[in-house]
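This section describes the prediction task in plain terms. A model, or a person checking by hand, is given the sequence of a single protein chain and must write out its three-dimensional structure as a string of tokens. No templates, partner chains or ligands are provided. The sample shown here is typical of the held-out split.
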Amino acid sequence: MTVLDVGCGPGYFTIEMAKQVGGRGKVIAADLQEGMLQALRAKIKGTELEARIRPVLCDQGKINVSDAVDFILAFYMVHEVPDKQSFFRQLKTILSQNGQCLLVEPKMFHVSRTEFNQTTRIAEESGFTIHQGPRLMLSWSALLTGR
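The expected answer:
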């Protein structure tokens, strides 16, 4: 299984997902900030997780991932993406046929219900099918699948 943690920050979810995918799995940790990727590298240096996690530096407007992935986590970051249409098109291109993307956005002071609905509408226009996501405290969530 190959997983993408887009907007991974210092790797909080990246590390946990790398434990879950096991020795044959791979986690691509993508972030726009080199400093976040350096923090992640420092955390996994010399551990078995170093072989499972591949840090990728994104460019403004480009994820820089072309591998097919089975699962994408976009946690508390899509509200910061200026071109959501391009972002979701890129995700759709790399998501495997039966893959899923978990979109989670913060409720408090960041993303209103209307804004979250606009985001999921853009994802839908980009080719995703939108499903109810898990109930998460202080968060909006949606599970995106390909058509």
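For orientation: The chain has four helices and seven strands.
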